[in-house]
Amino acid sequence: MPQSPRTLILWFRKDLRLADHAALAAAADEGFRILPLHIREPQETGTGPLGAAQAWWLHHSLEAFAASLQGLGSQLILRSGAAETVLAELIAETGAAAVFWNRRYDPCGIAIDKALKAKLIADGVEVRTFAGQILHEPTKLKTGAGGHFRVYTPFWKALDNSGEPPEPIPAPKSLPAPGHWPTSERLADWHLLPTRPNWAKGFEPEWQPGEDGAHKRLAAFVKSGLKGYRTRRDFPGEAHVSKLSPHLALGEISPASLWYATRGLSDDYSSEDYIHFRKEIVWRDFSYHLLFHFKDLATKNWNNKFDAFPWREAPHLLEKWQRGQTGYPIVDAGMRQLWQTGWMHNRVRMIVASFLIKDLLVDWRCGERWFRDTLVDADPASNAASWQWVAGSGADAAPFFRIFNPVSQGEKFDPDGAYIRRFVPELKDMPNSFIHRPFDAPLLVLKEAGVSLGKTYPLPIVDHGKARDAAMAAFQGLRGE
Question: Which of 210, 270, 363, 461 has its CA 20 to 30 A from that of 94?
Fold first, then answer.
C-alpha cells in the first residue's frame, strides 16, 4: 500500500508571503500535507510586532495572508502561547511528522528556535529551517581575517561580490490540506487594532498591508520612483522612495524579490539609481549582521566610550519632540508624519534623530523606543543600528560632530515647503523664504500667514546654535576622559 502523505506544520513568522518562501516551497515540492500556522508568542520574548503601530499592520497582514491561503485551498491557524507549547499541542492533535520554518535573526528569536529545534528532534519530529529573510545570513559573510564586519562599505562590497542571490521562487498554485483542521483562534480576539481612540485611522489611506500590496508598491516604485532615486531620494516632498520597508519588516516580500526587480531595466534607468536602491536593502542586511554579533544593539552603546556621555533628563523636551512641537518645522513635520501615517521619510528620520540626540541631548535609546512603538516598519536591527549611527556610538557611525542644522536641512531638501505644508498645516501660508524658520519672520509676514508664534505654532524649544555648542562641549569632555 502506498504511504499517505505526512502532515507538516509550516510555521510562518515575519514571512507572511507565498512567493519566494523557501520553507513553503520545500514543503510543497516534497508532497507534505501542509498546516500553515502563525503563533502569537508571549510579548516578553520580543519576537512579535515591535510596537502598537506594527501590531496594526500585523492584523491586516494576517488577514491578507489568510485570504491568500484560502485561495490555495488552505487555511491559516492562529494560536497563542510559547512556541514549544503550541507546537507540541498541534503535533498531538494532528499527528504532524515535521515542522518547517524560515530562520529569524534577532537574538531572542535565535535562542528560542535553537532550543525548540533540539527539543522537537529529540521527540522524533523532523525539523528543517531555511533562509530568506535577508540576502545573506550573518554567518556567511566574513572579513578577510575571518571576523565580522564593523564598517558598511566593505560589507557592501563583500556582499555585492558574492554573486547574485538565488532567483525568487514562484508561489505555489495550491497547497495540500491536512487530514483535519485543528481549531484556530480568532484574529479579532488578539486585539491588535487600536480602539477608543483609533489613533491609526490615518494609516488606512497610506497603506495596503499584505503580499499583494507589497508587489503593487514595488511595481509602482520601479515604474515611477526608481528613476532619479540616487539624487531625489533625500527630498521628502517627492515620490522617489519605495515605502517597501513595512512589507519587508513583516516578510510580505523578500529582499531577493526587490533585488531582482532592478535587473534588466531599460537604458532609461541610471545604474546609480538601482545600485543605491540595492545599497538600502543591504543596509538592512548589515544591521542584522551587527545585531547578530552584538545582541544588545538596541540597549547598549556599541562604542562603550559613550557610556559616560552626559545625557540630559528632560521628559518635557522629549514629549515636545514626540508630538512635533519643537518649533523647527522640518522636525515637527517628520514627527507628525510618523504619528499620522506610521512612517517617516528616511532623510527626515536622520534630521529628527540628530535633533533629539544633539540639540536636546536626550539619550538615543529614548528615540529608538519611540520609533519602535510608532513605526509600521519597526525592525529590531535597522532601528537600533540607525539610531546608534546618528548618535555616533555605533559601528561605522557618523561622527558625533555631524550635527544636522534643522533649518538648513529643511531649506535644502524641502525648498518649496511642500512637505512642511502637508504635515504642519498651520504654516501652509508662510512664504518659502520663512517656512523653515518662522521664528525669523517679520511680524507682518507672520500676520499675513495667520501665524502667531507661541500660540498657533510653537517657538523653538532650544536655540540650535547654542545647543550645538553644548553638544560639542559634552562630546569633547567625553573624549578627554
Answer: 210
Residue 285, domain CATH: 1.25.40.80
Q: Which of helix, strand or coil describes residue 129?
A: strand
Q: Is residue 190 part of a domain?
A: no
Which residue range forms the structural domain that includes residue 269? 134-164+209-293
Residues 280 and 355 in one domain: no
**Amino acid, single-letter form, for residue 72:** L
Residues 142, 129, single domain; the answer is no
Backbone angles phi, psi at 77, to 5 degrees: -90, 130
- Mean pLDDT across 24-44: 95
Give 266's pLDDT tier (boundaries 50, 70, 90): low
Residue 355 CA to residue 175 CA, distance in Å, equals 51
Strand locations in 379-457 (E) = none
Same domain for 224 and 119?
no
Shared-domain flag, residues 12 and 37: yes
The share of the chain scoring above pLDDT 90, in percent, equals: 86
pLDDT in tens, 298-353: 999 999 999 999 999 999 999 999 999 999 999 999 999 999 999 999 999 999 99
Whether 475 and 395 map to the same domain: the answer is yes
The predicted-structure confidence for 398-456, as pLDDT tens digits, reads as follows 788 889 999 999 999 999 999 999 999 999 999 999 999 999 999 999 999 999 999 99
Cell 479579532, residue? 188
Specify the amino acid at residue 308. A
Same domain, 108 and 140: no
CB contact burial 449-475 (16+ within 10 A = b; e otherwise): bebeeeeebbebbbebeebbebbeebb
> Cα–Cα distance between 352 and 376 in angstroms, integer?
17
- For residue 178, whether the previous peptide bond is cis, meaning omega lies within 30 degrees of 0, is no
C-alpha distances out from residue 76 to 25, 99, 182, 417, Å? 17, 15, 10, 46
Residue where a domain terminates, one of 271, 293, 315: 293
Counting Cα atoms < 13 Å in the Cβ hemisphere of 135 gives 27
Within 8 A by CB and 6+ apart from 65, the residues are 12, 16, 17, 38, 76, 210, 211, 252
264 shares a domain with 314? no
Q: Is residue 198 part of a domain?
A: no
CA dist 323 and 126 (Å) reads 50
Distance (Å, whole) CA 229 – CA 231: 6
Which sequence positions are flagged as catalytic?
A: 280, 283, 311, 346, 364, 387
The single-letter DSSP state of residue 359 is I
476 in the same domain as 409: yes
At 479 the pLDDT is 65
**pLDDT tens-digit map of 151-168:** 999 999 999 888 888 899
pLDDT, position 2: 37
Does residue 148 sit within a domain?
Answer: yes
